[in-house]
Each structure stands twice: as structure tokens, then as C-alpha cells.
Amino acid sequence: xxxxxxxxSNRASDKAVYFRKVFSVANSKRVILKISALGWFxxxxxxxxxxxxxxxxxxxxxxxxxxxxxxxxTSLIKEKNVISVAVGKGWALGTILFGELKKYYQIPTxxxxxxxxxxxxxxxxxxxEFDGWKFGxxxxxxxxIMLGETQDYYQENxxxxxxxxxxxxxEDVKIFNRRLQVEDKILPRVSVHEIFVGKRLGxxx
Length: 205
Hints:
This protein has 2 helices and 16 strands. The chain has helices at residues 90-93, 101-105; strands spanning 2-8, 17-24, 30-38, 41-45, 48-49, 65-72, 80-87, 95-96, 99-100, 111-119, 125-128, 134-137, 140-144, 148-151, 171-172, 174-184. Strands 5-4-7-2-12-15 form a 6-stranded antiparallel sheet, with no helix packed on it. The chain is globular and about 60 Å long. The N and C termini lie far apart (56 Å).
């Protein structure tokens, strides 16, 4: 499979980009999400994460191929829904030993590919890809695969994950044209193994 178009903000920033799309489902017995990104992504349907995997889609040579992930999201679907995806620099634009990867891969901003497939009782499939997406920003104000992440929780808005969120101030996405071969997930699964709780040292200020 080849992907030729990706959605993006087309705006250089250290912030993670938040993409969202509201969609309705009627008479569908099965809904599949096929998703990938140029950068890391974390995706949610109606506020619920679609997977516990981390660092998706993994690191490949973005001049040659990128990994595509398929999820059956039928159990998360209501009549009216919202898909929301945070996309950061990841290995496509982040810092590595020899400098910024975006200069090597020539990918200016984090990009997303998300395809919704609706299958009805007759086995017919309807597809939604690029229409209806908007983008904005949230609490992740800096992110880099090697240099870490900074969050400003004053900018966090959990309503972003809800269909009722007012996105009138958000902007329509732009299209980034890059023809890439995509392959089904081939990397080992990465998920949270253990959580360490921080402890205060000293009296502080």
C-alpha cells in the first residue's frame, strides 16, 4: 500500500499538534481505524485510548517506508463520535546524534494519516480520510524524542476529547504530499511496564 497524502498543521512549532474530527456512524456493524504518522502519535476515540502501545509508529527510514496500524474500534463507537490524535516530532523530526531528523527526512511538521472504514451488514465498506479534520494545540508545549517533553497543564483541556468540544477557533488541516510505502506493523510491542512515583528531596522553596 502507498500513502500519498498526509494531514498536517503546516506550522513549525515545538508543540505537539492535536488533530480532531467529528463523525457519525449509522448502520455499521464494524468500524476499522487505519493510522500512521510522520512523528509519534497517541489516538483516542471519544476520549478512550485505542491502544496501550507507546512510541507509535516506531522508527523506520521515512524516505522508504512507514508502518501502518489497524484497530477495530467498533466497541468504542456511538452514534456521534470524535477521533482525537496528538502527534509529536518522534523520529521523523526530533533530535538524534547527528542533528535534527527533519533536515534528513525533509518533513517540515508532524503529519497524520487516519482512515476510517465503515462496514455495513452487506459487507460494503465506506471510507473517510481527509474531510472534516481540524488542528490546534494543548498541554504539550515542547517535545523531542531525545530531549524530552514539557507540559503546561494550564493549557490542558480535556473537553478536547469530547464530541461537544467547541473547535470553532481551531483551523482546518493542510495537506502534505509525500508518497511513502506503508507496511503493516512489524516491530515488537512497546507499552508501559512500570510506573515510578517521584519523591520530593529536601524542603524545596
